[in-house]
Write a structure and sequence with these properties.
Blueprint (H helix, E strand, L loop, with lengths): L1 E5 L2 E5 L20 H6 L15
Antiparallel strand pairs: 1-2
């Protein structure tokens, strides 16, 4: 995931890494990510991801 600061907001950008996870959806975020820090995420934390208009 790429973090792009825009107008004092933080956005996470989707990027396909082509890593075979046996049909399981996986999110990779660096530990330094603002979202990981603010929400207290750590390894194996389950998250829900949604896209605008989907």
């Amino acid at each position: 995931m790429v973090i792009e600061p825009t107008c004092n907001t933080h956005l996470l950008q989707f990027k396909s890494l082509s890593i075979d996870t046996k049909q399981e959806l996986v999110v990779f975020m660096p530990a330094s990510c603002h979202l990981c820090k603010s929400e207290g995420f750590h390894a194996l934390t389950r998250v829900t991801v949604s896209f605008e208009n989907k």
